[in-house]
Amino acid sequence: MLKAEFLGMRLFGRKELVLQLCVAAFGVRGAAAALAFTGSLDGLTAGAPFDVKWSGAIGTSTLTLLSGSTVVNKIAFGISDQHLLWSPYAFTPAGSYILQLGDTSGQTATSKFTMLAAGTNPSSTALHFTNTEFDITAGAPFNVTWTGAQGTTSLSLQQGDANSIKTADVILSSITDDFVVWTPYATTEPGSYILRLDDSSNDFAYSLVFNMQAEGSGSPSTSTSSSTSTPTPTPTNSAGTGTSTNTSTTPINAPSQSNAQNNQTTSPIPNLGAKAGIGIACSLAIIFLLTTLYLLYRQWRQKRDVVELSGTSSAGSLGFGHRGVNGYFTPGENGNGGVVEKGSTERENIAEMRGEGRVEELDGYGGRGVV
Known about the structure:
The protein has 5 helices and 19 strands. The protein is α+β, with helices and mostly antiparallel strands. The strands form 5 sheets. Strands 10, 11, 13, 14 and 15 form a 5-stranded antiparallel β-sheet that branches. A 4-stranded mixed β-sheet has the order 1-2-5-16, with no helix packed on it. A 4-stranded antiparallel β-sheet has the order 4-3-6-7, with no helix packed on it.
């Protein structure tokens, strides 16, 4: 009897031991498969790339940025890798956020962190701006400086919010120096802006967020390290394959030209004195032209008169008028008489041709003829 009880206890003990071993094994396996972030999110900066890592995902994963319980944006979905190179939008305000991770099996994991403002963590990228303040006014020059560039660089002006960004102006491309003296267009609207720098190695960096002042305001703002606007969540989905950069660059009013030292084009405006001088010069030119034409016309008339005078005899015999020295004679019909428009000598000669005047002496009627 005692032997049987002892044997039963031994068998029972073995079963319990086996059960405990199974539970322990499954428990360890379950813990190993749990979805969780790996590594710290310290130093995560708006506008700078950061490699977010995790483990235990089953299938593909989705990564979402939360501010409290509010969705700021869906960073990426369909991520097949267990990490994501993520660049938060440069206009994301500094503060506390939550990264939420989920996979296709329904597992979720979260991690709280503090987002740093764009441009406040130069060590996050080799390429970075060296300006500590951005006091920028439309129409006024500003010296933009940076370091860490590989090859040539391009500089652009951008606008946006916590879940979007757009290029407002491509300032200059193919820059070989590490600075640009930039004069924003005088018509640039006041508001929040940020500068983006890209180099030949595809590295990029953002400046501090700053407020552009209107032209002639005379009181440029100091650089701001965060945006005071509260973003309205507008999720933007993108398929994840291990990389995600929330840095779309759709131009909204990019100009057709850029200038190394000045983004502003000006056109000279003549003053009133210049306008008056132009008017006087035009008037004198017209008077000179008219005078020249008149003198040429007179010269032509004089030449024509000489030609008519040289053909007086032949013109008279043909029955056409001719110009004499003292007048102009037009023959009458059938060669009888004519009309003299001016000159007394010509009139007397014509009278004699008609049988008038001194011809009476030949008929014996004159006082001095034959009786």
